[in-house]
Amino acid sequence: MSKPLRFGIIGLGNIGQVHIDCFSECKNVDLVAGCDENTQRLDRLPKSAARFSDYDQMINSGKIDAVLIAVPHYQHVPMSIAAIERGIHVLCEKPIAVSVSEARRLNAVAKKHPKVKFGIMYQQRTDATYAKLRELIHSGELGEISRITWIVTDWFRTNAYYGSGGWRATWKGEGGGVLINQCPHNLDLLQWITGLMPSRITAVGFIGKTHPIEVEDEISAILEYPNGAIGHFMTTTGEAPGTNRLEIAGDRGKFVLEGGKLHFTRTTQSISELNRTTNQSFPTIECWEIDIPVIGKANDRAALLQNFINHVNDDTPLIAPGIEGVRGLEIGNAMVMSALKRQPVNLPINGEEFDEFLEEMGRTYGGRKTIETREAAVNMAASAR
Predict the structure, then answer these.
(1) What is the residue range of 147's domain?
(2) Most CB contacts within 10 A, which of 88, 157, 235, 277?
């Protein structure tokens, strides 16, 4: 057995604490260092771990082999590049970047250092239900996909949530709203499960529709695919209790995933073939109703971390390669730009055009966030009573 991988964490906030706990569940790894500008958070580390307030010092210390990056979005790319160029393996939180141009720049650096392992924390790829759905679709069980519809409106967030950090819900701090914060996993799964990337996206969306924030909190999008399939994606942080329902229709029926249950309505014959050959106007289509059994955990961060450790140690295939982070990000970039500019966006997206859009959003709406701290949000709620 190879010696334990020496890991460090950059960012010891809420999600950083979750990652610290995950290390105790993993094998052949030691959490030996951590870094945070807020030095009080360093006490969350194991007592034996080295402590740093500057990430450059940690990655150049010689104490770590790999780093987990769990900081605000805009820092993902520069920190990942610094580590990769130093020969430090990188597992980065989602989203991999704010803009597709930055993600492409990071990917270009990663390709220049093929011996350095690069992963992204898309732990929902470990969810047994999503993995089973992907397996069935990629096996051809559904036939050619004709429609993808995901209503994911169960991301309800309060004003207190947006007030919990000044960087939240700002163009300068996050680079967007619901799509860049809550939905990166959904946008990744949209392409990972189906194996399809859209060629054109048309969307509508709203800035601060249900919260006093400067970024989008509601989006509805139509996705056009090269094979003629149509997709729908609807999300918001202002609806409760909300819905999380994924439908994928194809030539042999329809998958529905809702409430953690996967159901397959399977036609006994090809719909496209029936359409071409039948002389009936209203044929009866025989279907089998199948509840797909799924065994395994959901949303397992420790499993993804262990997979990355195994990949570094013995080249176990990565569940979530870092270079794939650009795919869901590109879908999200196209959605928000289409929604707020009120015009369709073709993919592959023009990176420079999206960067200009981000600058425009910052100039137009930046600084309009009216909730700055959790205390302010609580006080506002109290005064409303």
Answers:
(1) 125-298+328-365
(2) 235
The Cα 70–Cα 35 span in angstroms is 10
Say how far apart CA 49 and CA 321 lie, in whole Å.
27
Q: Per DSSP, what are the bridge partners of residue 247?
A: 149, 256
Last residue of a domain, one of 286, 320, 354: 320
How high is the pLDDT of residue 382? 55
Q: Which of 185, 190, 195 is nearest to 123 (CA)?
A: 185
Residue 168, SS3 per DSSP: coil
Outline where DSSP puts E strands in 145-239.
145-152, 200-207, 216-224, 230-236
pLDDT of residue 297: 74
Residues 180 and 213 grouped into a single domain: yes
Tokens 């990655």 — which residue? Answer: 59
Both tokens of 384, joined, read: 């409303």
50: Cβ contacts below 8 Å, ≥ 6 apart: 8, 32, 33, 34, 58, 61, 63
CA distance 254 to 290: 10
Low-confidence ranges of the chain (pLDDT < 50): 377, 380-381, 384-385
Tell whether 375 is covered by a domain. no
The pTM (predicted TM-score) of the whole model is 0.94
374 found inside a domain = no
Span 92-141, pLDDT tens digits: 999 999 999 999 999 999 999 999 999 999 999 999 999 999 999 999 99
Q: Six-digit token pair at 276?
A: 């071409």
Element (H, E) at 153: none
